[in-house]
Design goal:
single chain, alpha+beta, six-stranded antiparallel β-sheet, 6 strands, 39% helix
Length: 148
C-alpha cells in the first residue's frame, strides 16, 4: 500500500505534462516511465524491508506498518513507518533486532534530530537502518525503516 497522496500527485503530474506539452515541452512520457520503474523498485524494496523487520517487532507495532516512497520527489526509494505506544520501552522494541545482529548506531545520526535510537544491518546486500523517533507532539514513537 503506497502513500494515499500518490493518486493526487499523479493527477497533478499529468496536468503539468499537459500544460508543458502545449508549450512544446516533451518528455512527460519519460517521467511516467521513470516513475513506474521507481514504484516497481519501491514495492520490491518494501517487501524486502517488511520481511526483514515485521517479525522482529512486537505484533501491536508490526501491524501499524505503512509503506511510503519518494518516487514523486525524484529521490527514489522506500521507507516503512510504524508507530509504537510510549508504554513500550525502546529495549522491548529493539530486543529481537539485537538478537539477530542489528548493530547500534551510537550516537544517533546528526541528520535525524528526533532520533532516540538507531540500529542497522546488511539486508540483501544493502544497509538497512531502523530509527526510533520521539517527536514529542504525538503519543507514539515513530519507527522508520529504510535502505541507506
Amino acid at each position: 500500500m503506497l502513500s494515499k497522496n500518490y493518486r493526487y500527485i499523479k493527477i497533478y503530474s499529468l496536468a503539468a505534462c499537459i500544460i508543458l506539452t502545449s508549450f512544446g515541452t516533451a518528455g512527460c512520457g519519460d517521467q511516467f516511465a521513470r516513475e513506474k520503474q521507481c514504484i516497481a523498485a519501491a514495492n520490491k524494496d518494501a517487501e524486502e524491508l517488511k520481511k526483514a523487520t515485521t517479525a522482529l517487532l512486537p505484533p501491536d507495532i508490526s501491524e501499524t506498518v505503512v509503506e511510503n516512497n519518494s518516487c514523486d520527489s525524484g529521490a527514489d526509494g522506500v521507507y516503512l513507518t510504524f508507530h509504537a505506544d510510549r508504554s513500550i520501552s525502546i529495549d522491548q522494541i529493539l530486543r529481537k533486532f539485537r538478537a539477530q545482529g542489528w548493530g547500534t548506531i551510537d550516537p544517533p545520526s546528526k541528520d535525524c534530530i528526533a532520533c532516540i535510537a538507531q540500529i542497522s544491518k546488511e539486508v540483501n546486500g544493502r544497509s538497512a537502518h531502523l530509527s526510533i523517533m520521539d517527536r514529542q507532539l504525538s503519543r507514539a514513537f515513530e519507527i522508520v525503516v529504510l535502505y541507506r
